[in-house]
Amino acid sequence: MHHIRKAEITSPITTLASDTTTRLVPVAGIAGIGCIAGAFLLSPGGFAHFSHAYLVNFCFYATICIGALFFVLIQHLTRAGWSVTVRRIAEIMACCLLPLAVLFLPILIPVMLGSSELYTWNTSRDSLGWAVGDGDMYDLKTVFLSKNFFALRNIIYFAVWSLIAWSLYRWSVRQDETGEKSLTMRMQGFSAPMMLLFVGALVFGAFDWEMSLSPMWFSTMFPVYFFAGCVLSSLATITLVALVLQRSGRVTDEITVEHYHDLAKWTFAFIFFWGYVAFSQFMLIWYANFPEETFWFRFRSEGGWMTVSMILLFGHLFIPFLGMMARTVRRSKTFLLFSSIYLLIMHWVDHYWLIMPQLGASVHPGYNSPTPIPGPPIPELLCFLGIGFVLFASVCLIAGKRSLVARRDPRLHEALNYNNP
């Protein structure tokens, strides 16, 4: 007979704060800034190379946090009880969208200063080749892709995401102190309209950050592809963070194999969903065979990029899909640890594949071939470390001495006694 647990936190350590993490915060912040500066100085292709490398890693981390915010919203909307003990991890991750707004400045400031080394639309109409298929649609694109409108939109994105994330986190933490059950209903009611704003910001954010690197290309499925990557990477990160926390002696009793099993089921579903959307986008463009669409995939099948495309096809879809089919592996902490790291590596490769082939077009407007795969990815790795260090410091400050588990959530009892059927 299954033992019924009381709705009590029994782990000896349930906070991130310690003398070590307190000392690491300034060190991580300084190291992060130093790594980003090093990436700028060591970029072999100058500022254009640095800006693309920085965007790869910014999108990598931003999509994880956006996916975490979706996870929090959907748990409230569905009144989920199983996820109460892992939801706080996602809440903290989602709050990192505020420091990411600051980390967006190395992208935004050059655009506002008139640089076109990242976004080629930030220059004259003629140099972009707008004359091809000229018409009302391209006139509208010219208005949409302007630096002032671009800046305004991104301010709105981060304002919306930060408002949602910090409101839900603040109410959740307050419930730890007061135990007010009405806060659960408030978060649920708040999540419904905020989901609409969240989706709107995500769709246009996907257009602005990555799709507009090739302003002549268009795909209505790209935001869905972007969304699938957001959720998949956030699930892998939530799983990885939970495992690391438990190995450090934190929340040892509150997150069980049943929770990992559910996180793995979500991950398995979104591996397939990502692959389905990626194939659908490719198939529709291939079948239609319009030059104004197919060139985007041509850029990713020449100059060595076909190898990366095949890595994504097998490494991001087939291998993890087949690997996570069995129930036994979805309940193995060791397997989930390595699979989460593996999926995050594939997620990084995905953004590298989306962004870096456009580097040549940024340096030479009108350039009609993809940039060959750059040499050793030193700027990319330094940007990865730099943004990662800054976000690590942010997580330590956001989490502070607050509990890593929603202590007095009315559904805590359900989470602690959750069992997969």
Describe the protein in words.
It is a single chain. Helix 2 runs antiparallel to helix 8, helix 2 runs parallel beside helix 16 and helix 7 runs antiparallel to helix 8. The protein is globular. The chain is mainly α. It is built from 17 helices and no strands.
SSE layout:
Elements: H1 19-42, H2 46-77, H3 84-95, H4 97-103, H5 105-112, H6 136-144, H7 147-178, H8 182-209, H9 222-247, H10 257-288, H11 291-299, H12 305-323, H13 327-330, H14 333-355, H15 359-363, H16 378-399, H17 412-416
Helix pairs in contact: 1-2, 1-16, 2-3, 2-8, 2-9, 2-14, 2-16, 3-7, 4-7, 7-8, 8-9, 9-10, 9-14, 10-12, 12-14
Mean pLDDT: 91
The secondary-structure element order is HHHHHHHHHHHHHHHHH
Total number of helical segments? 17
**Helix-residue proportion:** over 70%
Largest sheet: none
**What share of residues are in beta strands?**
under 5%
What is the β-strand count? 0
Descriptive labels:
globular, 0% strand, 17 helices
Provide a brief overview of the structure.
By secondary structure, the protein is mainly α. 71% of the residues lie in helices and 0% in strands.
